[in-house]
């Protein structure tokens, strides 16, 4: 019924606005998560907190696929940091 009233173009526009906002939100979530851990814990896991913040931010702003790097951080790096944090 919605498409019959407003047409399919509105649905396409909403999707084209919604999907990039989700990707941006994922990148922001990853940056906030990196920032929430102490430098000592991140360094003990073998990473640099500043480098992760800069990499995700730069690739989000200039290249548009910082969400992929954010997903990599959340899947591969974050568990290592949490293990180090739990061990301390």
Give the helices and strands, then pairings.
Layout: H1 2-6, H2 8-36, H3 39-44, H4 49-63, H5 66-87
Describe the structure.
- The protein is mostly helical.
- The protein contains five helices and no strands.
- Helix 2 packs parallel to helix 5 and helix 4 packs antiparallel against helix 5.
- It is elongated and about 60 Å long.
- The model has no long low-confidence stretch (mean pLDDT about 90).
- Mean pLDDT equals 88
Give the helix level as a range of percent. Answer: over 70%
The ordered H/E elements are: HHHHH
Beta-strand level of the residues, as a percent range?
A: under 5%
How many helices in DSSP terms? 5
């Amino acid at each position: 019924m919605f498409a019959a009233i407003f047409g399919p173009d509105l649905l396409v526009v909403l999707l084209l606005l919604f999907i990039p906002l989700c990707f941006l939100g994922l990148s922001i979530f990853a940056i906030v998560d990196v920032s929430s851990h102490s430098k000592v814990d991140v360094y003990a896991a073998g990473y640099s907190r500043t480098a992760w913040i800069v990499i995700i931010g730069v690739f989000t702003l200039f290249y548009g696929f910082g969400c992929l790097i954010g997903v990599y951080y959340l899947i591969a790096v974050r568990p290592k940091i949490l293990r180090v944090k739990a061990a301390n």
